[in-house]
TrEMBL record:
It comes from the Bacteria. Keywords: Signal. Coiled coil: none annotated. InterPro entries: Phytase-like_dom, UCP031900. Residues 67-316 form the Phytase-like domain. The keyword Signal applies. Residues 1-24 form the signal peptide. This is Phytase-like domain-containing protein.
C-alpha cells in the first residue's frame, strides 16, 4: 500500500510540474492491445464503488494507442469505442465481453490523424483534442485546447473525417487558460449541446459552462451557466443520458493523494441558462482503487435496463502512468433520488 501511495504522489508531482510533457520511453516491449485489470488489485472481491457496479477494466497497450486519450465514445451496442488524444488523433477499436457481460478485451486498434482547420490567429499547438461527441445525424464534434475551439466533422468510416467546420466560440472561452478549455462536451437528446470549461487547478469550484445547439450560427446562440465541481476537482468529461440528464466526470490530482476521479449526475431540469449546476456524486475513485488521470466518459444502454458507463484515462504519454478503459453498470434506481441544486 505504501508503495502505491508513494507512486501516486510522484505521478501527481509530475502532472503538476510538467502537465502533459512527454517523458522518456519506458523500454517496455511489444504487448497485446489490452489486458484485464481489477478494480482493487489488493482485494479482488471488491466489485462496487458508490452506486456503480464494476463490470471490468482494461489496460490498453502504449504500443497500440500511443497514449494521451481524453474524450470517449462507445457505440450503442458496445462493440466499438473511439477516443481522441492530445496529439490530434483518434484511437478506436473493437470491444469484446465475457459470458457474464464483463469487459474482456480491446482489439483491432486503429489510429487516425484528425484533419485540422487553419487560422492565422492561432498560436502554438493546434492539435490538442480533448473531447468528442457524436451527433444524431452521425457527425462528430471535437473540442480543442490551447487554441480553444469546437470543430464539426462529417460522419466518416467510424471516425471524424473530411475538412472540419468551426463552430462559433462560446463567449468567454477565449479567457480560458491554455490547458484548461472545454474538456467536457456532450450532445443532449433534445438536439442541444452542453460544454464545460476545465479551468485552472486554482481551487475555484465554479467553472464556466454553456448550452447551445448543434446548428449554432453565432456566439449569441450559446447561453451561459455555471458548473460547480467538488473542492479541488475539475470537470474533464460529460455524457448525456436518454432523459436529458448528464453524467459529468471530474478529476483531482494532489501531491499527497495522487489521482482521484468522481462521477456525478446532473438532472435535466437543472440545465438552464443562468443556473448554477452542482451534480450529485454517484461514485468516487481514489487509491487503493483503480485510478489514474480519467478524462473521458461514455454511456450506453445495458441489456437489463441499466446504464453502462465507460471511462478512459489520459496517461500523459508518461511511462509512469497507464491508459485504463473501465466499465461500470449504473442501475436506474440510483438516478431517481437526485435533486437539482439551485
Amino acid at each position: 500500500m505504501r508503495k502505491r501511495l508513494l507512486l501516486a504522489s510522484c505521478l501527481a508531482a509530475l502532472a503538476i510540474a510538467g502537465g502533459c510533457a512527454v517523458l522518456a520511453d519506458s523500454g517496455r516491449g511489444p504487448s497485446a492491445p489490452s489486458h484485464p485489470v481489477r478494480l482493487d488489485p489488493e482485494r479482488p472481491a471488491v466489485a462496487e464503488v458508490g452506486a456503480l457496479k464494476f463490470r471490468g477494466a482494461l489496460e490498453l497497450s502504449d504500443n497500440a494507442v500511443h497514449g494521451g486519450l481524453s474524450g470517449l465514445w462507445v457505440s450503442p451496442d458496445g462493440g466499438r469505442f473511439l477516443a481522441v488524444s492530445d496529439t490530434g488523433r483518434t484511437v478506436g477499436g473493437r470491444l469484446s465481453y465475457d459470458g457474464a457481460g464483463y469487459l474482456a478485451a480491446a482489439s483491432d486498434i486503429a489510429v487516425h490523424a484528425l484533419p485540422l482547420d487553419d487560422d492565422p490567429a492561432y498560436r502554438g499547438r493546434r492539435n490538442d483534442s480533448e473531447e468528442i461527441a457524436r451527433l444524431p445525424n452521425g457527425a462528430w464534434l471535437v473540442s480543442f485546447e490551447r487554441n480553444h475551439r469546437i470543430l464539426r466533422y462529417a460522419g466518416g468510416p467510424g471516425h471524424p473525417d473530411g475538412a472540419p467546420a468551426r463552430l462559433p466560440t462560446p463567449p468567454g472561452l477565449e479567457d480560458a487558460p491554455p490547458n484548461g478549455g472545454i474538456e467536457a462536451l456532450t450532445a443532449l437528446p433534445n438536439g442541444g449541446l452542453l460544454a464545460i470549461e476545465e479551468g485552472d487547478d486554482d481551487g475555484v469550484r465554479e467553472r464556466p459552462a454553456w448550452l447551445g445547439d448543434a446548428r449554432i450560427a453565432s456566439r449569441a446562440d450559446w447561453h451561459r451557466l455555471t458548473y460547480r465541481a467538488a473542492p479541488r476537482f475539475r470537470p474533464t468529461g460529460a455524457a448525456a443520458l436518454p432523459d436529458g440528464s448528464v453524467l459529468v466526470l471530474e478529476r483531482r490530482v494532489s501531491l499527497l493523494g495522487g489521482w482521484a476521479a468522481r462521477i456525478v449526475h446532473v438532472p435535466a431540469e437543472s440545465l438552464r441558462p443562468g443556473a448554477i449546476v452542482e451534480g450529485v456524486e454517484l461514485a468516487r475513485l481514489e487509491p487503493p482503487l483503480l485510478v489514474d488521470n480519467f478524462e473521458g466518459i461514455a454511456v450506453r444502454p445495458g441489456a437489463a435496463g441499466e446504464t453502462l458507463v465507460y471511462i478512459v484515462s489520459d496517461d500523459n504519454r508518461s511511462p509512469l502512468q497507464r491508459t485504463y478503459l473501465a466499465m461500470f453498470s449504473l442501475p436506474d434506481s440510483a438516478l431517481r433520488p437526485t435533486v437539482a441544486r439551485r
